What does this fold into?
Amino acid sequence: MNPRDLLIDSFRAALTAADPLMLVPPHLPTPPDPDSGGRTIVVGAGKAAAAMAKAVELYWPRHAALEGVVITRYAHGYKGEEILSRIRVVEAGHPVPDDAGESAAKEILALVQSAASNDLVLALISGGGSSLLSLPAGDISMADLKTVTQDLLNCGAPIQEMNVVRKHLSAIQGGRLAAACGARMVSLIISDVTGDDASSVASGPTAPDDSTYQDALNILNAYRITPPISVARHLSKGARGEIAETHKTGDAVFSRVDNRVIATGHASLSMAASFFQQHGVTPMILGDSVTGEAREVAKVYAALCRQIRTHHHPFKPPVALISGGECTVTLRDKNIGRGGRCTEFLLSLAIELNGLSGVSALACDTDGIDGSEDNAGAFMPTDALNTAQNMVRMGMKGAEEADGMDAKTFLAQNDAYGFFLRLGELIVTGPTRTNVNDYRVILIE
It folds into this structure.
């Protein structure tokens, strides 16, 4: 098997470990006693919400009552004959929230508030839910929430810090959905965050949150973000104790909530490792919680690749260096960049390796969308830079539009998508309807 096919197939193996249709059924709770008249209300949000809801419908007893609403990203739902019949799927904006998400979030909150003590609320939570389940608190408008969200995205803030801010601008996150529920609640969670902390996935609508309004203000100040007046006023009131805090660990509201993390990035990395073992390649998992600027993380990995390729230390080739987590990209000019953290990692890696033979790599987001474009990520062949330079010398179509296919220019413009598009190495899967963070693998032959 050639390196490209091997790495792509390893990504497919990683995705199987995060497939909601396989993961949800074993964790489904027992329906309420039909004699009690209890309902089962399904609510949820995230990139995996539609597939999780489908798994519930497929395996829920036909005689048992079932209703609900979940929110997923545009194009991540189902069409035609696949449309669900008992749970409604709403598509909304991500990574910037929109009115569709706000309207559906209001409906979800009302559904949960309507639950009686003999009902069951089944929450389906996955990555992406922070923007999808957007219900601004107080007098914050959706326009102002969009503004602060976009500012946080542009500055490269880690997802945990973004979510601290979003929890304190929300009427439904930070444990507030759980607090609105008077029934038993079971929350099934597919984690896309480092550490698999339930309070960070989708900004923790059903989980305790120990951060504060002051923490949110400190984060905005650290990134020199001047928020809209309504946002600044709301956070300041919260910091002064004039607005109730998010619900903390030990709060009585969580005594009736069972939060279960059913999928993690590490499980997907482990599945990929088994795949490589079956193909005679030694797998080394370097961690499921890698963070930092994508281009800087790539420099560290490039140094390790050179050590292994040249000195067979600390690992002897063939070896696959596997990692997960969520790097960040700080936009130098928000009007130029295309792509995401996976392709930026690969472009920086290619530049640092500078044509080192026998090293190829793949980086993809497990949700099927890397950043703002239509690709999951990309494949970096061992001769990526040489191929790009040859395209220019041979006058291939499109090369003249690429500033000489100079990799450093593309990286400076945060346009890794443009580089790999012209190279013909983008990986396009379409929405996978799951999300356990990024998958990166470097193959050293």
Summary: Residues 294-311 form the longest helix (18 residues). The mean pLDDT is 93. The radius of gyration is 23 Å.
